[in-house]
Amino acid sequence: MDLTRRRFLQTSLTALAGASAGLWPLASRASEVVDFSLTARESLVNLGQGPEFKAYSFNGQSPGPVLRVREGQSLRVSLKNSLPHPTTIHWHGLPVPNPMDGVPGLTQAAVPPGGRFTYQFTARPAGTYFYHSHFGYQLDQGLYGALIVDPARPQGGWDREEVLLLSDWVMADGAGPASPRRRPSGGMMGGRMGRGGMGRARAGQPPGEPYYSGYAVNGRVYPAGEPIQVKRGDRVRLRLINASSATSYDLALAGHRLTVIALDGQPVSPRAFDVVRLSMGERADVEFVANNPGSWLLAAHDTGRGESGLAVPVVYAHGANRAPRAPAWRRDMRLATYWDLAAAEPVAHPPGEPGRWYRQVLSGGMHSGWWSINGRVHPDSERLRVEPGDKVRLSYFNRSMMPHPMHLHGHFFRIVNPRLEPERWLVKDTALVEPMRRLDVEFVADNPGQWFHHCHNLYHMEAGMANLVAYGPAAPPSGEKA
Ligand SMILES: [Cu+2]
Question: Would 355 disulfide with which of 147, 162, 390, 452, CB 3.0-4.6 Å?
């Protein structure tokens, strides 16, 4: 195919994709193809603390390289699998065509050891995303990286920008599948409450999450790692990405407030808070003005205790040479919740009652290591049937004592918020459902295929907390899970 025809086709496809989503401006020019190569392989990981250990990397580094493109460009990634196991890549948050979504056994066959696969899709809409393996426990072994889509028209205003990927590690050995540093399964009973002195996982139970001992920012555990250098008066943007497998963070920057400007990559009306909560799979773009010279820590509560907590210094040029100051965690600190934030611009929302309404009861963890939706454990799980154009509501009822960040592939949903007009509901792809709470989301079925829908706690997902959103007539599924 000659270049002209190929450009023409890509332009048409781009326009179609924009039209069906109906939410974002159409690209006005031919999409350029931007090429990347990623090789998944075993590598030594050095967190800057503890011993080096063998884990997985993209191109020899964990996190993998930052992939950065402009909205409307076509991203083409050639994946080479040099691991001793199959793998895939999922483009978390981007509504890509179904065959590009990277869920093994559902949207593609897993790429075997020595194999290759090329992913290609139009990068839209602009925002902060990440990519990660969707095979087994590989996300927790280091296979993730940032994916940034810049607006087609450059957006100025920041003197500095930092991409910060947050991840949970076991500093001694990474806690791969064979590691003894894993919690026995059994959730609350066998796991979290049973720290120390517990035996091995019961036969036939899924593995519990590891006992994490280190929380890394861009692959380094504080005090290792690069501080964020600022000058007085700088306007600083942080793209926070929680790529952790099983850890949520409450983040604060000592001496400053954080203004939330986007959640899951989608702009919100800017609003300042003391604390930003970020669960697995969630992203938050925040900004602050450097107006309080000194040496400070951006740190997470709880994990922020001790040397191995999640922290990164923010250091002013010509500032004091003292150790960075940690946030003073006070009870009256203002936490950013979904209910305090609104979409920056009105987003068209189909009027009327949802055409389909699915109740999703999240439970498990008390007496077994399994986690379920409506009592069913994946792959023996429900198909939530939808048809193109449907407005679909998911009502989550969390009947467990653990938070569940629920993630829908291939779509954005809105967080149902009775305090706001539907046009201003938050646009997200991952919704944190707090313990014993209800949360509703709505989405428009605008991206046909069979889509994975699951808790983004990797250990809950692998222990069954997943099902499918399936377009069209129900087809008997075969081997969804590798
Ligand atoms: Cu969960």
Answer: 390
